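WARN no homologs supplied; continuing
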Amino acid sequence: MTTNTNTSTATPLMDGLVAFLRDDGWPVTLSTAPVPTVETRCAGTTAEWACTGRTFEQQGQVVFDSTLPLAVPEERGPGIALLLAAANWNLHTGAFALEPGTGSVRLRTSLVSTGPLLHAPAAKALVYANVLIVDRCLATLEAAVAGTLDLADALDQLAL
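OK structure emitted
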């Protein structure tokens, strides 16, 4: 795996995403294997979390994931999975997902580019739609995972 913090990725979509992130003040670490990837971090209202951007140049697709700073215990997995599925039903942009093996939760947003380049306004919309949803929902999801908030109440509070 090749990792760097300074050079171009030589892939137009990734270069556009990286340029936006750098210009907007985000920390950037690049990788080229197995697909072009940029790793960064978001400092939200109450927590900080890891974010990953990936591009699939042939398909014109850009994907941005936030990995929430929580882990769902195995016994809470089915209920949290249902909560996330219900939240996704009303979510206009992106989708939450639970990795059953690790209990990791992420929010994924993506776009398909209409050309070979990713322009700053599109990159900004992709990234900020993602991190603002996570920031708004994180406390409710943490409480639901901890069991201090009933799942039905959590869904009402998410009000996506």
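Confidence is low (pLDDT under 50) at residues 1-6.
OK
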